Amino acid sequence: MLIVGLGPAGASLSCFLSEKGLDVVAVEMRPSKAEVACGEIIPERSSLAEAVSDEMLLSSVYRHVDEEIVRNRTDLLEFHLGGRVYEIDYRMLVLDRKKFINSYLDKAIELGMKPPMFSSAFTGFIRSGDKLKSRVITKEGTIYVRSKYLVGADGAFSRVAREAGLSSEMKPEDLAFGFRALASGRYEASSVIMKISPSRAPGGYLWVIPFEEGIANLGLGIRRSSPLWRSGREILLSFIGEIGAKSTSNVLGRHISVGGFPSRVVNGEVLLVGDAAGTCIPINGGGIFSAVMSSHIAAEHISAGDLNLYETRLRRDLFIVSLGLVYRRAADLVMYNEKFLKILARLIPSQIMRDALAMKKTLRTYPLMKLLSWVFLLKKTRSPVLVSRRTSSSTGLHCKAPKMLLI
Asked: Would the pTM count as exceeding 0.85?
């Protein structure tokens, strides 16, 4: 079993498969200590249970969440829209993302998995008999990994997906770019702030997520359909100064898919999980909990030796992703226009706003959002865009004589 990518999806999958007694090899292009642009926040279990009822899926996310991993607990979401502030009672957990990932990896290693290979780039595979033979460039040289299954957990522009014929074109509105920096300042520790601002974060939002005393995660997401995404770093630094904070880290950035599931996530013995499978929640760009849930579903089908129903079950059990896409498309009708947002803020009751932000499907919210999403699809005429993907030539890793690793 070869897993490419060790974010929340890849790390949790390595743990779930190791628990089922499977041999796992895991590789990650980034160094082990690399930082990633991320809000590092998930709903508290009771909050997420409003949208996801499957107890097994919920347990897969929270099984390792303890005080060592939780940086902060918040109970209020301040949502700024068109000059109005919605104060929404919604409990969330601010995580140490790296410790969260390592909790799964440590368990997998304890169960017999070999230590993951970081700074190692998957570059392609071929079918060899009843196995897949994958090429991986490591710091020590090139190795070939033979495995029955290959899993792409390598993000929105998955190399595994491309090599397996699973990649698809993305429209600009279905892709965002997220920027994040840590900043010192005075923050309300119990409140998360989200600000809709068409002039600074078109198609996305600015955020303030308190990490610990005097330190917060500040960031913004900008849709790729707006040229402003290229100026995201400068916009974020301006926002940090505007609220009287001081940046204490570099600004990090990465692409985020907000278009829901791609057309296919399985091809033969190759499957996708996490961001590679489009599990990011389109309405807010959050992806940690849904990535882990996708890996839980994948582990069950891999261990059973049957991937035929994986895609169907993924879409069914993670309906929250499709729901988030409906809500995002409805919001897109006004997200780019400050005047429309001010009108909307006067009309939308707090409870409907809470339903949308909590990703709940209710009779008072879903029918209206579904209708508006259809209007969005009728209005959209933009052509698809393809964004360049990193390949082995960009890794800068030196190649030595190939080695064979059998699993």
From this structure: yes
